[in-house]
């Protein structure tokens, strides 16, 4: 049985059922994006500057640049089996840019409970990790699980209310690396089978947080 945290706050933004205050346990499936990547698309990824540690505690290294890249590779392997997309590291011409932000982003400030945010702009995907006000939370497992979730947003998937799904808006697993569930796989297959237009230099999508 995975180790779950209890009484954790919601750490993704999604719209409640109405304008009334959200009751504990309320959840509404997010809409998926209205465009999708072509079948077999190759993502050329790069972990951009700063290339230092993910965070430091009393000067002690927590998650290094190399360790982050190892977790990314593990996540790519999981999504490749499901999606058919391809991934390769490309320092010169990336179309998937991953950043550790030590200052508030210019697009939209991080909230204290936000782990990362993802969006696409002009056919390029962006994932921004919050190293502004979550310094005490990052571990290799956390990097892995947050990145697995954010890649789902890059593909076009919204949040779901299945608590064990990777695309659930709360991060409950902090000790073990998450796996894509049957619900996630069905969600992805349904999305790519849709008649959405292909991504081709579209406008910036709405930010997705986790």
From TrEMBL:
Bound cofactor: record note: Binds 2 Zn(2+) ions per subunit.
InterPro entries, alphabetized: MetalloPept_cat_dom_sf, Pept_M10_metallopeptidase, Pept_M10A, Peptidase_Metallo
Stretches of the chain forming a coiled coil according to its record: none
Single Gene Ontology BP annotation: proteolysis
Pfam families documented for this protein: Peptidase_M10 (PF00413)
Keyword Protease: yes
SUPFAM superfamilies: Metalloproteases ('zincins'), catalytic domain
Binding sites annotated in the UniProt record for Zn(2+): 149, 153, 159, 167
Domain of life assignment: Eukaryota
Keyword tags: Hydrolase, Metal-binding, Metalloprotease, Protease, Zinc
Protein name: Peptidase metallopeptidase domain-containing protein
Organism of provenance: Orbilia ellipsospora
